[in-house]
Amino acid sequence: MRHPKVSDCVEVFDSLWPPALAESWDSVGLAVGDPDAEVRSILLALDPMDAVIAEAVVLGADLVFNHHPLMLKPVKSVNAATLKGGAVHTLISNDIALFNAHTNADSARGGVSDVLISLMGINDAQPLAAHTTPAEARSDGLPTGIGRVGDLDEPIPVRDLARRLASELPRTTTGVRIAGDPAAMVTRVAVCGGAGDSLFDEVRASGADVYVTADLRHHPATEALDTANRRESGLSLIDVSHWASETVWLNAAAEALETEFARRGFTVSLQHSAVNTDPWVERY
């Protein structure tokens, strides 16, 4: 067994979460690092925050694998006195590479939304907004795309589904919230890990009784409820923490990475960040 290089790690990451699956506006892949550097330890985290990078330095990690990108929007400078530049300087000065899989990990089979919907006992879900081009298909031939939709074994009240989620997701300050009738019976469930209020058209087209996502804002939520009422479709909404909806994927990501690195004859230590990057800490 041998240690991979950064370039080997990138090949593993891209095989599991193909960059072709990323949305056109997204930033995915290797953001910082020397492709020829050896990797003995990888730290997995949701966000490339300063605290996570500091943790990587203390742990002696050679690579940080994130879900969210460090530089989603273009930057004009990596001056160490700036937020993004300071992170880049810390990474480079400590010989730490940084890689992220974002919307490609949302869309891939076994990705963020697959893990989220499986917490509700649904394991045969289909993409909510499916990709259609051959370049965006996994070699296993299964459809990919943003979000998931599937059916529960039997109808349950919205509040019971919300309680099930609350028991499965990490506990957060914002908790799990319901919009609509908590007593409404639901069978068909749509989900989107992270912020998903841009997908209401797809949710309605899917015939879902309830939509589970994060970061729901007032106007999109109220308009979605009014639209459902006018169509007499009875859509309910469950809003969860952005961090909680996505961080549950990291365990599945680690398992997939362990398997793929071993298959390729590599040995590398995988560690989970102990930093909770949910920004909300108290409520009154």
TrEMBL record:
<dbReference type="InterPro" id="IPR036069">
    <property type="entry name" value="DUF34/NIF3_sf"/>
</dbReference>
<dbReference type="InterPro" id="IPR002678">
    <property type="entry name" value="DUF34/NIF3"/>
</dbReference>
<protein>
    <recommendedName>
        <fullName>GTP cyclohydrolase 1 type 2 homolog</fullName>
    </recommendedName>
</protein>
<dbReference type="Pfam" id="PF01784">
    <property type="entry name" value="DUF34_NIF3"/>
</dbReference>
<comment type="subunit">
    <text>Homohexamer.</text>
</comment>
<dbReference type="GO" id="GO:0005737">
    <property type="term" value="C:cytoplasm"/>
</dbReference>
<dbReference type="GO" id="GO:0046872">
    <property type="term" value="F:metal ion binding"/>
</dbReference>
<keyword id="KW-0479">Metal-binding</keyword>
<feature type="binding site">
    <location>
        <position position="67"/>
    </location>
    <ligand>
        <name>a divalent metal cation</name>
    </ligand>
</feature>
<feature type="binding site">
    <location>
        <position position="106"/>
    </location>
    <ligand>
        <name>a divalent metal cation</name>
    </ligand>
</feature>
<comment type="similarity">
    <text>Belongs to the GTP cyclohydrolase I type 2/NIF3 family.</text>
</comment>
<feature type="binding site">
    <location>
        <position position="246"/>
    </location>
    <ligand>
        <name>a divalent metal cation</name>
    </ligand>
</feature>
<feature type="binding site">
    <location>
        <position position="68"/>
    </location>
    <ligand>
        <name>a divalent metal cation</name>
    </ligand>
</feature>
<feature type="binding site">
    <location>
        <position position="242"/>
    </location>
    <ligand>
        <name>a divalent metal cation</name>
    </ligand>
</feature>
